[in-house]
Structure formats: structure tokens, C-alpha cells
Amino acid sequence: MAAKAPEEGFTAEPFVPERGGLPALRRAAAECRGCPLHRDATQTVFGAGDAHARVMLVGEQPGDQEDRQGKPFVGPAGKLLDRALAEAGIDPDRAYVTNAVKHFKFTRAEPRKRRIHKAPALREMTACGPWLAAELAVVEPELIVVLGATAGKALLGSSFRVTRVRGTVLEEEIHGRRERLVPTVHPSAVLRADDRESAYDGFLSDLKVAARILE
What is the tally of structural domains in the chain? Predict the structure, then answer.
């Protein structure tokens, strides 16, 4: 039985198993109480995909559909991501996708109204960090594609600005591993853009940078 983290602890560390690979991590994450987000979310949404993927894509947090279905990137943003990956020359089925935060954070204007996405706080990203570190240690990707500002801050620190470094190749120490990263916007930002076609073209261009590294 997993140990319970103290409310003030804000860390998933006590819940992360030492061995067992992705299946063990996924089972353990379902019981995570490392921060208060688990209280309102339907379930933990752990990463999914190829356990030996050369590329890992890291987003912000699950959305409404992901929270309901228990899988990452199954909503509209996920469909756009799959399309763009395929067009860039990266097989979506050979990738591993996950989020910096594993529970859906949301607000409601009124009871029973639509759940509105709310960005996770730094302490929630930090609390969830041990899960992402464990995924990186198991998958050992050659490249991380950073999807949006929140994922970038979770991996690279609070000074990260996606607009400054998108489409570039970074090399940084991440959770004790030297990693190569290509930052870009989150696919949901493409969906929200006033000029969606132009935003998609920019997103695709960034993913093509990642594809060239994997050639």
C-alpha cells in the first residue's frame, strides 16, 4: 500500500515505485495524492505510447476529454497533434506522450456547467515532477518535444518563454539526464489562434525541426 503524502508536502515522491517499468508507474500514479488536484479530477491521466520511443512529447495537463477517458491527448488538441506529427514525418504511434501534471485542473462558473481549464501552479508542477522524471528514466527518449509554456517551465524552470526558443534545439540537464529538447506551442494554442492556418504552419515547422533530429 502506497504511503500517504502530507497535505503540505506537495510531492508525488512517496507514491513513485522504484521498479516495474511503465505499467508499475501507471498503476501507482492512479493512487497519487501528492497534491490537491486529485480531489476534483475524475482520474489520473498518465503518459501513453511506445515504451521505447525515440521522442517524448510533454504537454501541460489533461483536458476535459482526457480526464474523462483516462488517456492523454485524446481531445481536439490531440487530434491536431497527431496530424501535425504525421505531416512532419514523425509516426504518432511510435511516440510517447505525457503531461507535466497528471490531473485535470479546472474551474466552473456555476455547478454542472462546463469545466474550464485552469493552468496549474508552480507547486503543482513541482509536485508532479517525480512522475515525469520516472517516465524519462524508463523511456530514455533521444528527444523531448516541449508543448507549450507550462511544460517548458516544468522542465526548464520558471524563466522559460516558449516564444523565445520555439523551433530551436536545446541541450539541458533534466532530472539528472542530459536531454535534447525542441520547444513549441501547445496544440491547443493553435486551435485558439485567430489565424489558425498560420499558427498550424508554425507548429508544423517546429515539429519538422524535431523530425530532422530523429532522421
Answer: 1
| Overall pTM surpassing 0.90 (yes/no) | yes
How far CA 20 is from CA of 17, 24, 137, 143, 190, in Å, comes to: 7, 5, 12, 23, 37
Instruction: Note the pLDDT tens digit of each residue in 40-90.
Output: 999 999 999 999 999 999 999 999 999 999 999 999 999 999 999 999 999
Residue 87 exposed, middle or buried by CB count within 10 Å (0-12, 13-18, 19+): middle
Helix (H) or strand (E) holding 136: helix 122-139
Residue 32 lies inside a defined structural domain of this protein? yes
Per-residue model confidence (pLDDT) at position 9: 60
> Mean pLDDT across the stretch 197-215?
98
Contacts of 59 (CB under 8 A, 6+ apart): 72, 73, 77, 97, 98, 99, 100, 147, 148, 151, 186
Q: How far does CA 30 lie from the centroid of its chain?
A: 16
Neighbours of 197 (CB within 10 A): 9
CATH code, domain with 87: 3.40.470.10
Closest CA to 202 of 150, 167, 174: 167
